[in-house]
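Pilot study result, target chain (228 residues):
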Amino acid sequence: IYIRNLADDYRANLRGAFDFLLMEVSQPFLIELAQEHGWRGGAVDLACHAGDTDLILLRLVSVVEPLLQKSSEASPLFLDQLETTIGIHLIERYNRATNLESASQGAALSRPQLALAVEMLSSNTAGNVRVADVAQACGVSRGYFIRGFKKATGKAPHQWILSQRVEQARGLLMKTGMSLADIALICGFADQSHFTRVFSASTGLPPGAWRRATGNAGSPARFSECEK
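Predicted structure:
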């Protein structure tokens, strides 16, 4: 990784071909995030690093890369959750002077908070709700909400929504003869291929095979060749 202030002059001699991903993070966003997590200093000042290894940041950024190719599959909730996680990591690891609370601190959401969060997320299974909106309604910071929700449910908000979509799809696969494309649309997936990938990762079988395994062949006339 290479962290630098984009306001500084920059010059480099590049020898040979290489691939890289440039991610710009605004200072106002980092300041707001730091204040939400208990930092009481002034402007966030990330220390410049060149050629360091950061496996956590690598994993987070590796999630971003596929979204550049298929942005339609990325819900605002997931993007909000991802940018919050990346921002917290940058501040906690690279800010020059900070008294941020440890990311491991924080209890699960209270029952009223969890009930409100579940209600808001359930009514927006398409993923159009943002972490900031739900966190604000619960009266906590974005980072606290993500950690508290995961502690209470065992899943991050975006993962929880995906599990709800899969559960809804399972019911439709069992009880109806709807096509996979229609089920994908109803359950909030970007398209049939997105539905198939998420469903397969969750259940171990693609939707069509899962439907046949449960004994519901559906209406044969409604399946396309690719769905068979």
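One observation from the pilot: Strands lie at 2-3, 49-50. A full batch analysis is planned for the follow-on phase.
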